[in-house]
Every structure is written in C-alpha cells, then in structure tokens.
From TrEMBL:
Source organism per UniProt: Kushneria indalinina DSM 14324
InterPro entries: ComF/GntX_DNA_util-trans, PRTase-like, PRTase_dom
Protein name: ComF family protein
Recorded family membership: Belongs to the ComF/GntX family.
Length: 250
C-alpha cells in the first residue's frame, strides 16, 4: 500500500513540475534560459550565450574524442587507429561541460522537462549543420527497471522528437539484460559491460544515425551499432548530444 501511494505522489509531483514548466514558458517568453537577457525569434537563448556554449570544435572523425585543434580533421585518434569502432563515423555537437552538462544532468537525473526542451532545440539547431545522409534514427531503450527508477527514458524522449522534426522513422533497440551503470568504468570495462546487450527487432534501412545523450568512450554506441548491422544497416553514424573531454569518464 505504501509503495502504491508513493507511486501516486511521484506521478502527481511530475505533473506539478510539468505544469510549472508550462507556466514559466508562458509567463517568461523572450528571455534567455542562461542569462535572462532578452531574446528574439522564439529561441530560449541569446546570441552571446549560444556562442559561449561548449561547442565541440575539434574531434576524431570516427569516435568524436576531443583533441587539439592543431590535429588534422581527417586523422583518427590513437584509440581508433588501434581498434576501429564498429560504427563508420560520429557526430556530437557539444562537449559535456559547463551549461550543456548542467542541462543534461537536470534532464536526465531530475526529469527537468524545461531542460529537455532546451536540449531538444539546441540539438535541432545543431542538426542544421549536419550534412550526413540519414534514413532513420535508432535509440537504445533503458532497461525497464532503470526506466522505472528514473521515471522516464530521456534518450527515447529526445529521439522521438528529433525523428519527428526531421520526418524520419525511429527504431528502438531493446536492452536484453540489466547491466551495472557505466559511470566510472574504464574503456575496456565499458565495452565488456554492454557486449551484445542490445537487439533491434526489425530490418533497418541502409543508413542510420544512432542517438544517445552523452558519449564517453563510445562503448554503448558501438554495441548498438553491432545490433544495427545485424538488421542490415550498412552505414552507421554514432550521434550524441555531448562528448566527455579526453581522459574524463562519467
């Protein structure tokens, strides 16, 4: 009885937060979500704050690992030279730091829908500069137990809206077993942790964009890529909102 009552209040609490978010969006139009300065064009940021975000300017073309701007853009990083990832390339517009990291944390761990809507609009804005050919988007489901604990699946929430905005089909990869969190694990341990953990249930088009919220070593996206290859995907791009800086694991 106690658990049921707690579930009811969690639902009521989420509805209250959502109502407050809608009210704030209605009562505070035209203000930057970062500095509260005036904005134009209906976007939740001002030009100065938008330019100051942690844009991912220099990355490995295969796994998007950050590196100095002096490195040639077409040169893979040391990890990819030693072992090429299963996916063909990657696209990650932001670094996981500063305002971007705070938005992701608020959305992922506190179910802050306002942060989610800002991240969605930032991702759609960044996608205007993406020139790859994509026929579908693929997201990886949280394990049902993890989704219940968190209250929602943040990657699926974003993936659905991005796919709808781009008029692309969305495919979901089923997680076959519950695994320990990837937080704090080494690159090799992350790869072992998610080995053959995903399955895509239907055939895929030739070119797909995988989508995750944060890319650290690429282990999750690589496991997802293998599942997509098994269903016919010929060209796989690993995509995420943000990439952790080199040498930093979360």
């Amino acid at each position: 009885m106690k658990n049921g009552s707690g579930d009811i209040w969690r639902v009521k609490g989420r509805r209250l937060v959502e109502t407050l978010d809608r009210t704030l969006a209605w009562t505070m139009p035209g203000y930057c979500s970062f500095c509260l300065a005036g904005t134009a064009g209906g976007r939740p940021w001002c030009d100065q704050c938008f330019r100051a975000l942690a844009w991912h300017q220099s990355a490995c073309p295969l796994c998007s690992e950050p590196r100095p701007a002096s490195v040639p853009a077409d040169m893979p990083c040391g990890h990819c030279l030693k072992q090429r990832p299963n996916f063909d390339d990657s696209w990650v517009p932001f670094l996981y730091e500063g305002e971007i990291a705070q938005l992701i944390q608020r959305f992922k761990f506190s179910a802050d829908r306002r942060a989610g809507h800002i991240l969605l609009q930032l991702m759609l804005q960044a996608l205007r500069e993406y020139h790859g050919q994509v026929q579908a988007i693929v997201t990886a489901d949280l394990h049902p137990r993890r989704a219940r604990e968190r209250g929602f699946d943040q990657t699926l929430w974003l993936g659905k809206r991005i796919a709808a905005a781009l008029d692309l089909p969305l495919y979901r990869a089923t997680r076959l077993r519950l695994t320990p969190t990837q937080r704090g694990l080494s690159r090799r341990a992350r790869q072992r942790n998610v080995h053959r953990v995903y399955r895509v249930m239907s055939p895929l088009p030739a070119s797909v964009l995988l989508f995750d919220d944060v890319m650290t070593t690429g282990a999750t996206l690589e496991a997802l890529s293998r599942a997509c290859r098994e269903q016919g995907a010929a060209h796989v791009t690993a995509g995420a909102l943000a990439r952790t800086p080199a040498g930093r694991a979360i």
